C-alpha cells in the first residue's frame, strides 16, 4: 500500500544561550540559538524530522513559512517523492506566490531547508540508513537526479557531474572504510567567542588541545587590541608542545594536511572569523594588522552577498599567506557558483539549512570539487553539527574523494537535546553516524521541545514569571 504524507507539525524552539555569551561574535551579540523544527507525518509510522537554525527573534516567522511549504506535500506519495529528489526540490521551490517572497533567499529559502531536510530524513529512515549512507550508496545517475541543478549549468553540467562521480565510484568503499576507522577531521570554535574572558579562552583552548584538536577558530573584528591579545593567548597554548595530549608527537607543519595553512611548530592551525563586520578596504587593513597571528584564513570578512568584494580581499591578503573563507550566509547555490568562478574563496563553508536542504548542498559540493576548493561546512548553533557530518561524509566518499585538508566545525553546545547526537573521537575527529534508524540525526528529544518551545515551554514560562 502506498504511503502518503498526511500532515506536519512545527515547533519554535529557542535555547537561552545569550545568558552565557556562547555564540557571541562581532556581529551577533546576543544569540538565543533556535530551531525552526518540522516533523512530516505520513499514513504509516514513517516520519521525517528537519529544522533550520536561527538565533532567536524571527524563528516564529520561519515556522510560518515552513507550514506554507509543508502544506504542498500533503497527499503526495512518498515513493514518488523519493524517486527523484531533485525534481521534488524543484517542485517545492517553484510555488509562484511563495517564490515571490524570495526567490531562493531569506526566510522562505531557509524554511525550504527545513522541509527538504525533513524529506531526506524520512527517505533515509525508510531505507534504514543514515542520510550520508543513503547518498553515497546511490549510483552516479541517482545522485545527479537528487541534485538541485537549475541555474548552475554554466559552471557544471550534468554530464560533467556524472563523469566526476563515475571517476570516484570504484573507490567509494575504500574511503568509507577509512573514515569509519579514523573519523572525519574537525576543528573547534567554542574557545574563541568574543563574549568570553581571556582566562576562559585559555582554559577552553588547553582543553581543546588536550582533546586532540589541532585547528582552532577565534572571533575577531570588535576590537583590534583585544583580538591581538586573545590571539596571542591562543597561539601561546596551541604552539606549545607541553599542552599536547600525552604521548602525541607534534604534527609536521609541512605535512600534506597542513601545508599552506600557516601551521605553527606543533602543527596547530588558527583561523579567524569576522562575521561580516567590515567594508572591503577595512577588512584588508584590519586583517593585515593581525598577520602576526598567522591565520590560515579570514572567514566572512565582509557582506556575504559581495562576491567581488571577497575576491578583492583574497587578492590583497595573498602576499601575507592569509586565505578567505565564506559561505554560512551564502543564501543559494548561485552565490557559491560565483564565489568559485570569481576565485574569491580558498575554503567553501556550506551551511546545511541556509542552503535549502541536501539537494541544494549536493550542487555546491559538486561545483566545489570541480573548482578544487575544499568544503569545510559551517556548524555550531543548534543541530548544525548533527547535520554536517553527513554532508562531509558525502563529500569525501562520493564527490571530492579527499578529507585530510578539510576540517569540519565542531562546537560543543546543545547536543544533549538530540536523540542521535554527534560525537568526537579521542583524536579530535567526528565519529561516523552509524545507527540505521537515525536518518539525518536531527530528531530532537520531546522533553527538550516541551521545555524550550517559545513562548509557552516550561523554561520560557518560568523565565517570564521570574521577571514579573
Ligand atoms: Mg562563522
List keywords for this structure.
single chain, 468 residues, 8-stranded mixed beta sheet, 18 helices, 41% helix, TIM Barrel
Write a structural description:
The structure is a single chain. The protein is built from 18 helices and eleven strands. With 468 residues, it is an alpha/beta fold. It has a domain of 259 residues: TIM Barrel (Alpha-Beta Barrel). Strands 4, 5, 6, 7, 8, 9, 10 and 11 form an eight-stranded mixed beta sheet that branches. The longest helix is centred in the first third of the chain and has 21 residues. The protein is globular and about 65 Å long. It starts with a strand and ends with a helix. The site of magnesium ion (MG) has 5 residues, from loops. Magnesium ion binds next to loops.
**What CATH architecture of the domain at 172-430 would you give?**
Alpha-Beta Barrel
CATH fold-level topology of the domain at 172-430: TIM Barrel
Estimate what percentage of residues fall within beta strands.
5-15%
Ligand kinds: magnesium ion
Largest sheet: 8 strands, mixed
User: How many β-strands, per DSSP?
Assistant: 11
What's the N-to-C terminus distance? 54 Å
> What's the helix count?
18
Helix fraction, binned, reads 40-55%
CATH homology superfamily of the domain at 172-430: Enolase-like C-terminal domain
The quaternary state of the protein chains shown equals single chain
Mean pLDDT metric: 95
Provide the structure class. alpha/beta
CATH classification class of the domain at 172-430: Alpha Beta
SSE string, helices as H and strands as E: EEEHHHHHHHHHEHEHEHEHEHEHHEEHH
**Rg, alpha carbons:** 21 Å
Report the uncertain regions: none
Large-scale geometry: globular
GO molecular function, one term: magnesium ion binding
InterPro entries: Enolase-like_C_sf (IPR036849), Enolase-like_N (IPR029017), Enolase_C-like (IPR029065), L-fuconate_dehydratase (IPR034610), Mandel_Rmase/mucon_lact_enz_CS (IPR018110), Mandelate_racemase_C (IPR013342), Mandelate_racemase_N_dom (IPR013341), RHMD-like (IPR046945)
Domain Mandelate racemase/muconate lactonizing enzyme C-terminal: 198-320
Catalytic activity: L-fuconate = 2-dehydro-3-deoxy-L-fuconate + H2O
Amino acid at each position: 500500500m502506498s504511503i502518503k504524507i498526511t500532515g506536519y507539525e512545527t515547533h519554535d524552539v529557542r535555547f537561552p544561550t545569550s545568558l552565557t555569551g556562547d555564540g557571541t561574535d562581532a556581529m551577533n551579540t546576543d544569540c538565543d540559538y533556535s530551531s525552526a523544527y518540522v516533523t512530516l507525518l505520513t499514513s504509516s509510522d514513517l516520519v521525517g524530522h528537519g529544522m533550520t537554525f536561527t538565533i532567536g527573534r524571527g524563528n516564529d516567522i520561519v515556522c510560518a513559512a515552513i507550514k506554507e511549504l509543508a502544506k504542498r506535500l500533503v497527499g503526495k506519495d512518498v515513493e514518488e517523492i523519493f524517486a527523484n529528489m531533485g525534481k521534488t526540490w524543484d517542485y517545492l521551490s517553484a510555488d509562484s506566490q511563495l517564490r515571490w517572497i524570495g526567490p531562493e533567499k531569506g526566510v522562505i529559502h531557509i524554511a525550504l531547508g527545513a522541509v527538504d531536510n525533513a524529506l531526506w530524513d524520512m527517505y533515509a529512515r525508510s531505507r534504514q540508513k543514515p542520510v550520508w549512507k543513503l547518498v553515497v550508496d546511490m549510483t552516479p545517475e541517482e545522485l545527479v537526479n537528487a541534485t538541485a541543478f537549475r541555474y548552475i549549468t554554466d559552471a557544471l553540467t550534468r554530464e560533467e557531474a556524472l563523469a566526476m562521480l563515475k571517476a570516484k565510484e570504484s573507490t567509494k568503499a575504500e574511503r568509507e572504510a577509512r573514515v569509519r576507522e579514523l573519523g572525519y577531521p574537525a576543528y573547534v570554535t567554542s574557545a574563541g567567542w568574543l563574549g568570553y574572558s581571556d582566562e576562559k579562552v585559555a582554559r577552553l583552548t588547553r582543553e581543546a588541545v588536550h582533546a586532540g584538536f589541532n585547528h582552532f577558530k577565534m572571533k575577531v573584528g570588535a576590537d583590534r587590541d583585544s583580538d591581538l591579545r586573545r590571539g596571542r593567548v591562543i597561539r601561546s597554548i596551541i604552539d606549545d608542545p607541553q599542552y599536547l595530549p600525552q604521548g602525541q608527537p607534534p604534527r609536521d607543519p609541512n605535512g600534506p594536511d597542513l601545508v599552506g595553512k600557516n601551521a605553527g611548530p606543533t602543527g596547530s592551525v588558527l583561523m579567524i572569523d569576522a562575521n561580516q563586520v567590515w567594508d572591503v578596504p577595512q577588512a584588508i587593513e584590519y586583517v593585515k594588522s593581525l598577520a602576526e597571528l598567522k591565520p590560515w584564513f579570514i572567514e566572512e570578512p565582509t557582506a556575504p552577498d559581495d562576491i567581488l568584494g571577497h575576491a578583492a580581499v583574497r587578492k590583497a591578503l595573498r602576499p601575507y599567506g592569509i586565505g578567505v573563507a565564506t559561505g554560512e550566509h551564502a543564501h543559494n547555490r548561485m552565490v557559491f557558483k560565483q564565489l568559485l568562478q570569481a576565485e574569491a574563496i580558498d575554503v567553501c563553508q556550506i551551511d546545511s539549512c541556509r542552503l535549502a536542504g541536501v539537494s541544494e548542498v549536493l550542487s555546491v559540493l559538486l561545483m566545489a570539487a570541480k573548482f578544487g576548493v575544499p568544503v569545510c561546512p559551517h556548524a555550531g548553533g543548534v543541530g548544525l553539527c548533527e547535520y554536517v557530518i553527513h554532508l562531509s561524509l558525502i563529500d569525501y566518499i562520493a564527490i571530492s574523494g579527499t578529507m585530510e585538508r578539510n576540517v569540519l566545525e565542531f562546537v560543543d553546545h546543545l547536543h544533549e537535546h538530540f536523540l542521535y547526537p554527534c560525537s568526537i573521537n579521542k583524536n579530535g575527529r567526528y565519529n561516523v553516524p552509524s545507527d540505521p534508524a537515525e536518518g539525518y540525526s536531527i530528531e530532537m528529544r520531546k522533553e527538550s521541545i516541551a521545555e524550550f518551545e517559545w513562548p509557552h515551554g516550561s523554561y520560557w514560562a518560568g523565565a517570564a514569571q521570574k521577571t514579573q
